[in-house]
Amino acid sequence: MAVNSxxxxxxxxxxxxxxxxxxxxxxxxxxxxxxxxxxxxIQQRLAxxxxxDSLGAxxxxxxxxxxxxxxxxxxxxxxxxxxxxxxxxxPQGVERYRSLSVTFNSLFERVYVNRLAVYDETGALAAEGxxxxxxxxxxxxxxxxxxxxTLHIPAPMIKPGYTLEYxxxxxxxxxxxxxxxxxxxxxxxxPTQVAAVFVVxxxxxxxxxxxxxxxxxxxxxxLRYWGVSNPPLFAYESGQPAIxxxxxxxxxxDAGRTWQELGAKYCEKIAxxxxxxxxxxxxxxxxxxxxATREEKIAAxxxxxxxxxxxxxxxxxxxxxxxxxxxxxxxxxxxxCKDHSLLAKQILDAVGIPAQxxxxxSANLTDRQLPSQDQFDHMILSVAGPAGGDEGxxxxxxxxxxxxxxxxxxxxxxxxxxEALLLDPANSRLVGIPxxxxxxxxxxxxxxxxxxxxxxxxxxxxxxxxxxxxFSPVAAGGMRAGLSATEPREHKSVITEMLRDQxxxxxxxxxxxxxxxxxxxxxxxxEYRVESxxxxxxxxxxxxxxxxxxxxxxxxxxxxxxxxxxxxxxxQGATLRSTARVVLPPGYVASRAFKPQRSPEQNRFVAxxxxxxxxxxxxxxxxQSFPGVFPATxxxxxxxxxxxxxxxxxxxxxxEPAAR
Length: 660
Fold this sequence. Notes:
The protein has 660 residues and is α+β, with helices and mostly antiparallel strands. The termini are far apart.
């Protein structure tokens, strides 16, 4: 292999031998790749880093440095090397570093571990990584078809007090005429003393942006580099907003591109697929027969593609950019995001409703300063507004089978507007995606609660509940997906399990409306019993004390108050409106349970209003959680307000015999 690293015969022998050893196909990881050398400007900084073991006290380890280098020479080579040096302090660090892993795509790149060395407390070499112990496994967990594999790298002699040094290089085998788009996050999940990224080679052919440090130039030779000391900690956390808003990130891409050029080039590549398709035109006539309005036609077409075409994911990239013809998608009844979007576009075009294919990223914000198709990983459809322009433009994602197709892709907040690249031969451009609105997420609940003292000899009373819960289409997505993934006979178990942290309910009846209609509200009709929710007060004239069940209100207020966030968090905003009528045992009253109440005026995250009618034994409750992006330090206050709401919902009431 060292003689001819691209020899197909040699690669086949390595693949066969590795398979016999149970290591997977290790051919792509055994061919040496020269690392991208750290330039002197950065080497000097690394030599000056002081030892500070206190940084690893909480996490069991810390990184002395994490460096990423790129070397790009057009039409010759593209490679990147990652350098890491970590100090192990305790058992957590041993667990973290005893095995390293890296994901790569063997279809168009290869990787090589240039160096893995472990040093003891004195700085003497204790052990080195053994390439014969490295192994590769396919990434086959998700639904998307990719060539991704994971290289696992056991690290020997990892102990507290030891230091690990690690170098790994990745080399592209195709697409060497352009750099593409790279996103380097300088924040780290562990305390890190220095994080940096640099690029050498055809630097003048590249463009850069940074949300953190400014770019610096090398003293000699083509070089750009960015570095930070003690970068902020980063962890993937629930409710996290776009990372660009709070972490130092460097973007690198090809210079001199325009969005119009990129979009027009893509349209030219798929030009034959954009021609009118007879099968799509015929289906358009069928789907819109008898429909009068534009909105009705858009809804019918979107629902058809969403419901009748099965989603088979294919990674969007250099090997997955060509959609199937709509006629083929209709024939096979399956396709990826490109096939879904193109079919919907052709049908809409056939009925005179202009629509454009659009590229988005499913997680990251678009960097509008660096035009690059590699910023995107997903295709959706954009429908022009009623006047044919951007005003009133909507975006449809028909690959999401259980969500409203018009509300799958959205911007997180006014401060983080995401953008889609509209593909138009003459006018490709970035267009802002509407923000998610607070009123999109709404629950309406109507319940009748009967306090059942049907066994007088017992010291407790149950609550028997008949309830209807209505989820707005956006709020229903997750619930709809969970229920659709199970057999109807299991639906009661799904709901019971979901609510078990709020109430120990015994669900006796359940019916579901609109489960297969994502554009409509999801309606649950439930009957359940909450046992021993009221208890008799000994020696107090037959009084019972307890609380009224409020399972969906408690579900909305459920927060993990044990979590300690290190990054900002985001609230999407939601509204719950519930009405409850209480049926008391004959001869009993509970007038104080229906007194009006309000949340504290200073609440920033959630507010509620309770209005009651003592005569009708009913009360109306409105809960509003407020949208926004907040610093991690505010999470404890958010949890306190949610706990405040929970305490209010669980506030005991007393029912007692009426005065005679």
